[in-house]
Every structure is written in C-alpha cells, then in structure tokens.
Amino acid sequence: MTGWIGQPGSAGEWNGGVATQRATCVLAPNPGPMTLDGTNTWLIAEPGSGRVGIIDPGPDDPAHWEQVKAVVDRLDLRIDTILLTHGHHDHSAGARLFASHAGCSVRALDPAHRLGSEGLADGEVVEIGGAEIRIVATPGHSGDSLSMLLVGDRAILTGDTILGRGTTVVAYPDGRLADYLDSLARLEVLVAEFQLTSILPGHGPTLDDPTAVIEAYIAHRQERLEQIRTALASLDVAVQDRPALAQTLVETVYADVPKVVWPAALVSVYAQLEYLLG
What we know:
This protein has helices spanning 62-74, 89-92, 95-102, 177-194, 210-234, 242-253, 262-277, and strands spanning 17-18, 23-27, 40-44, 51-55, 78-83, 106-107, 125-128, 131-137, 146-150, 155-159, 198-201. By secondary structure, it is α/β, with parallel strands linked by helices. It has a single domain (17-221), classed as Ribonuclease Z/Hydroxyacylglutathione hydrolase-like (Metallo-beta-lactamase, Chain A), CATH 3.60.15. It has a six-stranded mixed sheet. It has a five-stranded mixed sheet with strand order 7-8-9-10-11, with no helix packed on it. It is elongated, with a radius of gyration of 19 Å.
C-alpha cells in the first residue's frame, strides 16, 4: 500500500532504467493512484560478476517477469537471489513466480514471505549479484519494512518508506507513526554516515539529495501532526468515536489532496490518532 498524500518528492514521469552503476529499475506495469508509475523492480549487479539480484519483483504478472528476464538475458546475467523490502502485494506477489523461473530463494524479514530457509535481519550484510547490501530495519509504513544500503553506489533502496514522489502511507495498524518517525531519523543518520548521494525508492523516480528529501519528509509529518492537533481542538466530534473522527479529519486536513487517495489518508489519520491519543 502506497499513495502520494503529501508534498515531498519530485514530479515528472518515471519509466525506470539505469539508476546507478549497480542498480537498474524495470518498472512493473501496475500504475495507479496507490502505486504511482508502477512498482520499481530493482536489478542489482556488481560489474563483472555475471550475477544479478532482484529487489521487489512486484505484482504477480507473467508479463512483468518477461520484461525482467529480457533485461537479465540481454546483460547475460544469472539471477542469484530475490529480496523484499516488505510484504505488500505490489512488491511481493510476483516473488514466487520469479523464484520458480530463476531457481532461487526469496529473502524477507517476515517469514510468511520467504521462499527458502534464509531471512533478512537488521544490520545484516548480504551479497546479491556480487554487490554488497546492508539491511536496515525501517518500520513504520509497515511493520516489516526494510531499507537496503547499496554500499558501492552510495545509494539506499527505501521500498515504500520514502517514495520518489509524494509521501507514503503509514499503514496502521501494522504500521506505526512513532516507528516511522524513528526510521526517518535513522535514515538521516545513515545518509550522513555513508555520505549517500541517491535514494532508490519503491515507486517513482530516484532522488539525488537524500538529506533534503528526508528533512522534507520529517517536516511534512510534523506539519500534518500539527494540523491534526489543531483540528482536534476545534472539531465537534467525540474522540471516543474514532471512525467518525478519523473521517472528519481526512475531510478537513487532507482537503488539499485528490479524493482518490482519501482511503490511504484515512489509514494515515488512524496512525496519527494512535500516535497522539493512544
């Protein structure tokens, strides 16, 4: 579940393609209000390794597999593993199809989305396509959300934690706003520590000023929280009636976003209310 329900992020059409020396995006054909241009399926390969790893196969779509396979074959590479940033269907549903064709495992934080015995853990260093990836737990959008530091390119793959356009949904109750704010703070530290120069998101275009993007995300969340606080002080809706309160807050605070993404905004409002009121 994604959705552009805020302002940070860049505008413009995104078609995927080569993003860094080690990362190429094959855009899944699943565009929509909640997926932007489609899911970014990332191919990761160390130059000269002869192997490639896949991060987020995307939807269960044989046509998308054929797109990915065509790129892999053109580069004369062998798929060695699949990683998931999180288990939402627009990122993970195609994993079994991809793995069966490639003859490889699927690694994820959540055991329910693994194929094979190995999972992923915060702080773990893994090799895919010959490239070094450092796993960073960034819960908030979902409980199992991971970001993946591509060390050689000074880039970080953020799944739905940071999008290339707009802001992500905190998918309450699995996602928690307190966790999400902590994850943004953690990413901000990593950007400085590893001098990262690019963000490779799960949807939308790549971003080339990670510090500014994360600062904008944090500021936007704080602005929304302040808007919620202000609205709570003025609305004539019982706090105990959480569904009615949440819907009224969407109509009040998110009046500036298209109604097509109001259902996603509603989920985030529940997360904000849990953060503020418990």
